[in-house]
Amino acid sequence: MFALSTLTSGNNFGKLALWAKHMNFKIMSSTSFHKMQRTYLISTVDEYWEKQQREVLSSFEGHKLIVMGDGRNDSPGHSAQYCSYTMMEYDSKKILTLRTLDKRSTDRKSTNMEKVGFEQAIQKLTDNNIAVEEVVTDAHLGIGSIMKKKYPEIKHSHDIWHAAKNLGKRLGKIVKKKANQILIPWLKDIVNHFWFACSKADSYEEFLSIWRGVLHHITNKHEWILSQGTGINGCLHDPLDENEVREKPWLSTSDHARVLQDLSAVILDKRFLSKVSYYLNYRTTADIEVFHQLILMYCAKRFAYTPPVYRIRNLLAAIDHNYHSNRPLKTNKDGEIRYHRCYNKKSKRWSVFPEKVAKTYGYVPEIAEMLYKKRIKDKVGMGKKMVLEEGDPRRLAKHLAPESPPSTSAIVQAKQTRFKRK
Fold first, then answer.
1. Which among 110, 147, 255, 392 could disulfide-bond with 156, CB atoms 3.0 to 4.6 Å apart, if both were Cys?
2. Is there a single domain that holds both residue 118 and residue 188?
């Protein structure tokens, strides 16, 4: 039970062993723990996840789903060894499938893992006869290529948050010019207008009519003549109070012509506008980002894991998420929802979100029961010889390095100084 609880609570044996040493407690040895983990725990968690996954997938049979997908590397950039790719149903937030990859399975190219993970995840849904009508991802070029070539019948949307973030970066570049600094108070409003245009528009033409209106609005013109004669010819906000004290200055079409020209280059950028169709369904993958934070509880980046252990720790996070996804909200004695406040250092604003009741982890006794039955039925025990499971990346290469390492003594010899010690 100690070994199982170490995993299901997201703990690390080394830290618990140190805690037990300080408390003068006797616990199982590191060797026994890892034997138990290798012999029973990994397969038991795998079996429980397969059971839960079958139940989740069967509940969506006969429905056309919107799914969102995103990858998470265990470390940033090209140094990543593992990638976890998650696909989640958009409305229920249930995780449909989770794939873990080692870079040895992608020719040691960390940048390819997310693409391969996506391909495996959507293939898993297809194999289980899940009807997907829309997929929401980030703007990964490799994933976009797969969707165009293999799944042209499925609508592909991009996460609007990433688009808004990139728009903010481009606007941030133009205000570095001294003449354009008058735009600084408007930056947040321009990005918010992009969110609004995507939520309001049903077509590219409607989006463009709403979107380019910001160029008129900041010059205090809220109605204008359309050159093509069709589209929206005015701002969609309520009439402004002329007596209201303005915090942001209006721009002049004559005095700030160069500023408006630089802003127009960003607002009407052809490359930016060519991607608008990916954002018109107003989708985001924020819920997967939240799940990625839960993975950190089970799979902290400061520790090294073998491929099977990394996989089951990710699966435990997915089991936790699915089991507790429908938790009710906390209420006070008057039946009102309780909220928790949070301060955002970047936006410098307070926000609130509703609190949920505490987690129960009711699945842990079920996993424990499966573990006990597996141990009772096993006539050999932990002393049996274990072989690498099929698909283990260590079958492809023992080490992450592209070549076999020299002996330790050879490395020590190469590092010895040519000067003798006194």
1. 147
2. no
Domain that holds residue 238: 161-278
166 and 116 inside one domain: no
User: What pLDDT digit, counting tens, does each position of 321-339 carry?
Assistant: 999 998 999 998 888 999 9
Is 291 found in the same domain as 149? yes
Give a yes or no: residue 251 inside a domain.
yes
- For residues 116 and 177, state if they share a domain: no
Q: pTM here?
A: 0.88
pLDDT tens digits, 96-119: 999 999 998 888 888 899 999 999
